[in-house]
Specification:
Helix content is 84%, strand content 0%. The protein is mostly helical.
Length: 62
């Protein structure tokens, strides 16, 4: 009886921790992707003086 209760509580806690870890991982990935996009357009603006998809996709000036 006690073992069944402990297993039930443990299973509930594991499920909760997995959902929290997944949520945090998705948030981290979202921040990382947004940062890369912002940095790309910032470099585009510095290089070309304007924000455009063409400028972001062109090869950097050497």
């Amino acid at each position: 009886m006690v073992l069944a209760i402990v297993q039930s509580v443990f299973a509930d806690n594991v499920g909760l921790l997995k959902s929290e870890a997944s949520k945090t991982a998705y948030q981290g990935m979202g921040i990382a992707v947004a940062t890369v996009i912002i940095a790309t357009f910032l470099v585009c603006f510095v290089d070309t003086g304007a924000l455009s998809i063409e400028g972001a996709l062109e090869n950097p000036k050497t």
